[in-house]
Amino acid sequence: MRAAVRVLDSYSLIAYIEGEAGKDTMIEVFRSARDSGKPLFLSVVNWGEVYYITLREAGREQADHVEHLISTLPIQIVAADLELTKQAAEFKAERKMSYADCFAAALAKQKKAELVTGDKEFKQVEGEVKLLWL
Known about the structure:
By secondary structure, the chain is α/β, with parallel strands linked by helices. Helices cover 57% and strands 14% of the residues. The chain has helices at 10-17, 23-36, 44-58, 60-72, 82-94, 99-111, and strands at 6-8, 40-43, 75-78, 114-117, 130-133.
């Protein structure tokens, strides 16, 4: 897999964590980031989405385990500042996407990065954001 600046959405992380379809691709994404020194980016909003889904489905102990796991991966968490939030809001106003997904798309656009996902909602931004499909 070629090295690239990439943004993760919650779908891609959950696929990795839960061993779903796309896990092998995610392993390669992590290896590529580690070996190239190019970090993966994750919006704090998408981090929160992964955490709350795990908390709701598997409880606090597993959610805390996932929090620790994410901290060991070559991922840089990006705060939702005004510029990022404005871009996410513009995506939300123009498309039928979840607000959290809009943050992933906005971050990918801001970083001129490839967005790693398997979530078909992102087909709506294919013209504005490069996508790496799981």
